[in-house]
Amino acid sequence: MGHAPDTLHRSLPSAPLRDFVREYRLTETAPGRSSVRPVVGGPHPRLILQLGDPLDAFEYRTGRVRRLAPALVVGPQSRRMADLHFHGRHVSFQVAFDAGGLYRLFGFPSRQLVDTAVAASEVIGPAAARLYEALRHAGNPDQMVDAVEGLLLAQLPLARPAHAVEAAARRLQDERGLTSLRQLAAGCGLSQRQIGRKFCERIGLSPKRFARVVRLSHALTLREQRPSLTWTDISQEAGFFDQAHLVKEFKSLLRLSPSAFARLDGLPAIQ
Predict the structure, then answer these.
(1) Cys bridge to 85: 56, 64, 109, 122, which one at CB 3.0-4.6 A?
(2) Is the pTM higher than 0.85?
């Protein structure tokens, strides 16, 4: 069984970074709980700093368990690629980037990060080690946020210009993946082929895959926040054609049926 980490702190970025970062989050898994939790991921990359005990992950691509780097970047996840193995006390500080935010700040192509996780030093350079040490010695969450923002604000003068495709990705996120490619392209002044190419370059995923991941992520959020909902209710609210469509997407992207995934993820069972 899995058990969701407890969220200790959530905050929004300062005004200069709001086009680049969605949120900061500090979570903790209490010691003594040995569990396995699927990595659901999402359409945007994240910088994750593990401040507690070492964390292992089973990777479906290799069929092996590996020890994760204490500071790593997890790219856009188009499907369930790994399961985390929790043993001991795990404290995690996460920076959730907005559409194109990591690419614009650090120039690392998002498509090279899809469905993988790499040491943060490969993306943001030697500053990753300094940031990790600063967070380890921080006295409270606000000091952690200050350390992260110090790094990100220093990158702003070097940031790449925004592109209309990032606004299109935010629109697709806000509308739960229900906007058509034709509408997105028209809003950007691009052809459908052009917007598809720019999505892969700057966001990492194609618009269609991005929309599928966003829609499924919304379904999982509904399940976590409103556990009394049935899967039929969730399929309707999240924009699926019907429950059969929801089940098909779960099996395709998460490798399990909705009920089986909920049991693994530590959520109450529903019909």
Answers:
(1) 56
(2) yes
